[in-house]
Amino acid sequence: MIKKILSFEEILKGCVKNDNSCKEMMYKSFYGYLMGIILRYTKNTSDSEELVNDSFIKIFKHVGGFKAPKNPEELQRSFKGWIAQIASRTAIDKIRSAKVQFYVDDLAESEHPATHVSIASELHVNDILNLLNHLPDTQRLVFNLYEIEGFAHDEISKMLNIPESSSRVYLTRSKNKLRTLYLNTMVNSYEKNG
Amino acid sequence: MDKELIEHITAQLQNHEEAYSNGAWERFSEKKNKRRGITYWPLWAAAALILIFGGIFLAQNNIDQKKQVLVIKQKAQQIPAADGNTNVVTETKTNPTPLNNNATAANNIAANRATKITENLKPLLSQESSYPRINTVEELTPVNNNLLDSKLAGVNLSNLKSKQFNILTENKKPQPRTQTNFEKLLAQDSYANQQKPADKASGNSKWQPDVYVAPAMGNDNKVTMNYGFSLSYTIANKLSISSGVSYASISTTESLDASAPQTLSGKNLASVDAKVRGINVPLELKYNISDKLYTNIGVSALAVLNNSQQNSYIINQVQSFSSPAVNGYADSKTLIVKEKTVEPQPEANIDPDKYIGFYNFSLGYKQKISKKNNIAIEPFLRLPMKTFSKENLNLTNGGLRLKIDF
Predict the structure, then answer these.
(1) From A9's CA, which of A67, B49, B113, B336 has a CA 20 to 30 Å away?
(2) What domains does chain A contain, in order, with CATH numbers?
């Protein structure tokens, strides 16, 4: 009944063979990781598990096509990178299909000068996700892709089908908005506290 | 520490991982297996119900139409028939003898009428065959009654007694026909009278309150009780609109075919039991199929008062047994045991929805118990507009409503 603890490599091989118990272990060990990625993109928490599951369906379907790196120590890391990419693509597809009029933000608005904001205290992930929820969808998406996933502006512009300059504008705007949001929430919480 | 906000956010998000949510794998594997299977049975049930109701409605409509055709015929023929009585009498005018004979003949008819009224009970249908003939007679002799009267006035009665008998016998043939017309008339009258009080009764009280108790059952086969009050308002002859308020309690279960967890410490979600209690406010359209049978279709909103959920998990447990043997050696065994545990769902994970929408379908049978009161039994089906909570619980439930009208 209880199998010996499998190494990641064995689990991966089991998934290629479509072994259900290996899939279960794979799912359970990477659920949280993918959920963390998905939550950066979606406001709606009820959709997020669906998106995680959609990602897993794709992962299990194409796991045979995953090319393991030569260095076996890097196996798990590169696998995580691979599934992260699948998850973020899945989320982007979902956002795109949900919103037809997606890129309608007014770009003519004057830009605020970037100010540096330093943080006095540690900001918890939940607070950060909350801040992200206040961003407009496009800004949030560009911020995610550039700052966290590490895409360049030209890649983002191809991915989202927008001019490169727009991508830059959205990024600046999202950062500024995050800073103001952060300052506002901090001020508010100070006021509340005393 | 003087770290730029954006860098901090980036670092935090890149390293962030959510915790595994219990039951996620079970939901995932179940979804994969089932996809579009029996999970959609509520939709099928709804479709079947609509079909059944539609069928009944259509069949009923057909019967109604047939009835209406009948009534129209009767009315159309009844009016000429009423005239026909005098017309048939005047038919004898062709006779050379004056009309006073007819006057006495008419008297006879009147006398016969009383005795023949009992024949009213004859089925109306059988009498209909005679109408066309009467109509043709009428068409042949379009005579004004007033004319007849004036002629009667000027006639000498004493001269013509001898011929009276012949004419009477001649007249006897049309008599039965005319009398059936009278009977018809009377039957028609009494029929109309029977209809009127019913109409009045329904017209007087457009509002109809009732109370009900409804045991219901969800997919977990547990009986829950619902109590309520409803008020219906008649908007058309057979149609009424009803609303009300009721206490509803719904229970449901969802079993995920979980196997034992693959790891020693893991736990797999096996099933979820949920109970929702609340105040249900329906808005329904009621159609009276017949005097006793009616059907309800509507929607309702359930304001959730209390919502509890229990999860049962399959967990692995290590148990060791030791049994002292006779020869001084202790025999020790360690077993991994699959065990089922039940835990209440933590508050945070319970569905935050305050309102749940339902589609309601029911078919009722009404029985009079006194002049004003009716009791009714009404099987019903409540289909939720969407699944409930993260576990996709299906709140579909059905039951039997026992109703008392005032």
Answers:
(1) B336
(2) 8-97 (1.10.1740.10), 109-193 (1.10.10.10)
